[in-house]
Amino acid sequence: MGMTNTGTQPQQRPRVGPPPADRRAPRGPIAPGLAGVHQDFTRQTYEAGLDFGKDHVELTAVLLAALATKPFLIFSGLSGAGKTRLATALGQWFGREQVLVQPVRPDWTSPEAVLGFENSYSETTESRHSWNVPRTLEFALTAARNHEQPHLLVLDEMNLAHVEQYFADVLSGMESQLPIVPNLIHDGRGWRIPRQDMQYIPWPKNLYLIGTVNLDETTYRFSPKVLDRATSIEFRVPPGSLKTEYPKERVVRRGENDLQQRFLERSLADDPEWRDRGHLAHSLQHLHRLLYEFDSEFGHRVFRESLRFGALLAEVGHDDHCFALDVVMLYKVLPKLEAPGALSIELLHALSAFALYGPGRSG
């Protein structure tokens, strides 16, 4: 993972999971908290044949901490880099009944593609029409009725259609927790809204979302609204990673219920205590002032979520605030500066000085 150097060298971090020479090392004691979730998931991915090279452990740490911070991730990068495979691996760790991989179609032009619609031409039961229910809506209803288990929706090739057209209601509902999901039940003849229950319910808090995207001439770019509500993780295929023989990939084993509960509870709990919170806050405030001078600053949401992300990242063993700042720069700040004309030469020089010398220092 190419990180910036914010003035200090991060300490050598202990490896979580089996060492490179022995991917199938015996299972050791599970660490407490979110660290145990990371330890088990990382080991399971190794044993299932996944290998993202020297950055594998850091990648799974960022994945889990980011998803516990914000239940919406974007995996971007060229086709075949392993985006969908890693997303599916986490879903398999949740459980086969707790993951749905849904390919996005280019003709998704409205929220109905995800949240369905009432079919006014259908036969009525007690004056209620039936609904056309896509797999995504059925899966959301399943998650809502099994709220003690984490569920993962993977939207594959998410930007083959305009995300703002088909996903705006979900983005708003995830943020506001206003009721957006039709509260349907299947009466044996079709899906209908119950007469006496709430007609709509909020997006389930135990339903996480990962969208995979390829950035090329056949796809749509994301608006700042979408990027602001997600963490974007870029996948690269570095030199030396191409091999003549690859291990056979297998299904990731389901995580223990206790570990799944840890992840779910941590994602819903308040921010944990973290000794470097003030250091990260100071760096982000300086970065905000720098970006403000170029009309490119971030808002309260990014600042608040970055502090939470840093604390959760510390829980999985990466407690250096410089590492957290690097990841925030790469996956929260820089993606919003990729629009044409957003990165001027002057801003690029200012960001370079910030990366090299840290806040409040000049080269």
- Coarse shape: globular
The average pLDDT is 85
Binned, the helix content reads: 25-40%
Uncertain regions spanning at least 5 consecutive residues: 1-26
In short:
With 363 residues, the protein is α/β, with parallel strands linked by helices. The chain has twelve helices and eleven strands.
Q: Can you walk me through this structure?
A:
The strands form four sheets. The chain has a five-stranded parallel sheet with strand order 2-5-10-1-11. It is built from twelve helices and eleven strands. It has helices at residues 33-47, 56-69, 83-94, 112-115, 135-144, 163-176, 224-228, 257-268, 277-292, 300-315, 321-333, 345-357, and strands at residues 72-77, 99-103, 117-118, 131-132, 151-156, 179-182, 185-186, 191-192, 200-202, 207-213, 231-235. The protein has 363 residues and is α/β, with parallel strands linked by helices. A hairpin with a 4-residue loop joins β7 and β8 (191-192). α1 (33-47) crosses α2, α2 (56-69) crosses α10 and α9 (277-292) runs antiparallel to α10 (300-315). The two termini are 25 Å apart. The radius of gyration is 21 Å and the shape is globular. The model is unreliable at 1-26 (pLDDT under 50).
